[in-house]
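Can anyone check this?
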Amino acid sequence: MTGTVQASVSWEQALSWRLSRHLLDPAGAESAAGVVRRLGAVLSMDETLAELALRTRSATIPPGGLGAALAAGEVIKAFAFRGAVHYLSPEEGGVYLALRAAGRQWELPSWVEHYQLTAAQWPDFRAAVQDAVADGPLTSREIGEVLARHRDYRHLQPVFDEGAATLIKPLTWQGDVSIGPPRGGRLTLQRLDGNPRWAGIPDLDDAGPRAILAYLGTYGPATFDHIHYWLGAGLSAGRRRLVAWWDGLAGRLAEVDVAGTRAYVVREQLDAMLAARPSEAVRLLPGHDQWVIGPGTRDTPVTPTSLRQLMTRKANPVVLGGVVRGTWVRKHDRLTVHCLDGGPAPTEELRQEADRLAGILGVDLQLSVVAGHG
C-alpha cells in the first residue's frame, strides 16, 4: 500500500498516543476483560506477570481479578500467537483464532501420519472432544479416558496422558474448546459455546481486516512489517492473505511520516495522535508485557537494540515516555531499578511509580536506583 503522507509526527507523539491506548498514561479504570480486549491478547506464560500487566493498567482490578474473569467467562484462554497460551476477549478473540486456524495444520500429511487422524475424521474427532467436556472442564488425561471408549480414538489415549498440547491447539483455534481454570495444577479444557459472551469464529476474510484495524488501534502507527510480525509470524495467517487485506483497507487508513518512517494509523484516530504531547510517564512493566511484545523486540523506537536480548529473556522493563530505558527486579521488600541507557535517572518519577507498584502488590517496597545491569 502506498499513498500520500497525510501528516508528520514525532516518535514522542506517537508513543504518547500509544501509551494512552494501552491504558498506561493515564492508567485506566477498565475491568480485566476490558484491558484484555484493548490489548488484543495477553500472554499467560506466567500468570503473575499476566495479572500484573492488567493491574498496571487499571486500578479497579483486584488481586486475583484475572483468574476470576476467566472463571466467569469474561476472558478466555486459547493457544494463539506463536503457539503459546493467551488470554483473549470472548467477543473479539475469535478474530485471531480464525487467522490461526487458516493454515489447517490438521490436514498436513505429517499430522495425519503422527496422530492417525485423517482430515475426513477431524470433524467427528472435534465433536467427540466437545461431547467429552459437555458436563464441565476435564483435564487432558480425563479427556483421553473418555475418548478411549471410542474405537477410532483409543490409540490417542497415551497422547492425552502426556498432555496432548499439540493435538489440542487446533481445537481451541476452531472454537471447540478453551482452556479452563486449572485443577490441581493441571490444565483443563471446557466447551466454549456455553459461554454467552463467545461471539464465535468469523469468516476468515472478515477476521483479517478486523485484526489489522485492531492492531493499528492499539499499536499504531505501524508498518506492514509490524502487521506481518503480529498476524503473519504470530498467527501464521500467510503473507499473501495479509497483503490482500492490507490493500483492501486503503480507504480506512492514513499514512504518516514518523521521523522518516512511513507508517499507518486508522484514519479516524489521526487527529488524536496529532494532538498528543510527549509523555513523561515512568512505568514499571512486567516481563513480556504487550507494550514490548506487540510491536516486537526488534522495534527500536520502543526497545533499543542494546536492550532487546533482555526483553526477549523476560526481563521487567522500565519504560520512560514509551521507551525501554532499563530493567527492574523485586526481591522481598527491595525494588532495584537498573538504568541502562546512560542517561540521568528520573528519581522522583521512579519513586512515584514504585509506590504505585507497591500499592498494586500490597507490599512495602524500598527503591534502589543503580546504573548498569545487575
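Reply from J.R.: I decoded it. Residues 282-371 form one domain.
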